[in-house]
Specification:
single chain; alpha/beta; Rossmann fold; eight-stranded antiparallel β-sheet; six-stranded mixed β-sheet; binds guanosine-5'-triphosphate; binds magnesium ion
């Protein structure tokens, strides 16, 4: 049985419409990987192929390995409230906080180090199986060297790269190998099966990504996902307010803020999308008038109310962050199927 070198799917030359299709079984990459890598073509994306149960089965098969668990920095803000690390509680874990290059400029290395070490200190109490942690994009030139030396210290030659879909697992292995052999893409669900790669004295195992039902990505169509995914260093959009205001991020998010006196709100979202602001009294009107823009949404927005007294950071997974300063009453309207998180980490 021959498998695709990019995504791990079993290759077949019988059915063009099915995953794993190749014209000739001599080929190393399936049609889906080829078209995805060369043309960014997502026609062959089947969102329901990978299930978490199937991934847990893979993890169990490699239970004596070291698990390199890769976390997107924007998810890392709420790692303590997230259940992802429970999936690895029986395994030795090397935690990688990835994509720190997306954070805005004002979060310098010092601030980031402080944030991450505080978070790890707390996490380690609950998860003593986290043996080490690293951040990517910091001291990038020495990352590979430091990573390999850490693997040698941890003394396990079987290394599974695991975590949520799109966290950057396959990209990280490519970076370590200095190659493009694994298929990567901006869409979640790229890797379909485990892929084994031998490197130096290690056996690396790339795995498909766990589906996160609390992430906007799981609920958006590919067009809306592409437009709202944060893929560059965030430039926050900041607003001051001393009267009630409503803020709209297309049809994806609405934030109503009723300040006691003065307040400010910062949106950390994809830079190409502009937040629309209107007076709170006009909020419902605006929402109705622009409803057809919001039709791309697959689920209605649900409202969560908060009374805040100084500064609060809300994490809307897969969409961004909203930071509010000041004493205020806040209503956040987000996709009903997505859980809102309040971050304990200060930005
Ligand atoms: N900005 C930034 N983007 C990254 C980084 N690492 C990976 N990416 C991007 O994140 C996206 C997902 O990368 P993949 O390597 O395909 O992620 P994955 O975890 O293998 O995804 P699945 O196979 O779907 O589970 C791609 O668009 C990568 O270019 C990083 O450090 N910084
Ligand atoms: Mg992958």
């Amino acid at each position: 049985m021959k498998k695709c070198k990019g995504c791990g799917i079993e290759l077949q030359d019988k059915n063009k419409e099915m995953l794993g299709y190749v014209v000739d079984l001599e080929q190393d990459y399936c049609q889906r990987c080829f078209r995805l890598s060369h043309y960014g073509d997502t026609t062959y994306f089947k969102t329901n192929y990978v299930t978490n149960e199937k991934i847990f089965e893979i993890y169990r098969r490699y239970s004596n390995s070291l698990f390199v668990v890769i976390i997107d920095i924007l998810d890392a803000f709420v790692l303590k409230q997230d259940e992802i690390l429970d999936c690895f509680k029986d395994y030795d874990v090397l935690l990688i906080i990835n994509k720190t290059d997306l954070l805005p400029e004002n979060i310098n290395d010092h601030k980031l180090n402080k944030m991450v070490s505080r978070m790890l200190f707390d996490l380690n109490k609950k998860y003593p199986n986290i043996k080490a942690a690293m951040m990517t994009n910091k001291h990038e030139s020495r990352f590979n060297e430091q990573f390999i030396s850490l693997l040698n210290d941890l003394n396990n030659h079987n290394v599974v790269f695991a975590g949520r879909a799109n966290a950057g697992k396959s990209s990280l292995i490519n970076k370590l190998l200095n190659s493009n052999s694994l298929t990567t893409s901006m869409y979640p669900g790229t890797t379909l099966e485990e892929v084994e790669i031998f490197y130096k004295n290690f056996r690396f195992i790339d795995t498909p990504g766990l589906v996160d039902v609390n992430n906007y990505a799981t609920h958006l169509n590919s067009e809306k996902y592409r437009l709202s995914k944060i893929d560059k260093m965030i430039k926050p959009q900041i607003f001051q307010l001393n009267e009630p205001q409503s803020y709209f991020y297309d049809g994806l998010l609405r934030v109503d803020i009723i300040p006691k006196e003065k307040a400010s709100v910062s949106f950390y979202i994809n830079n190409n999308n502009k937040i629309h602001r209107t007076r709170f009294d006009n909020g419902d009107d605006y929402y109705q008038k622009h409803y057809c823009e919001f039709i791309l949404r697959v689920k209605p927005l649900a409202v969560s109310d908060y009374s805040i007294s100084d500064s609060k950071l809300f994490v809307i997974k897969g969409l961004g962050l909203v930071k509010i300063n000041g004493e205020a009453f806040v209503s956040i309207h987000s996709l009903a199927s997505v859980r809102l998180y309040e971050s304990e980490v200060e930005l």
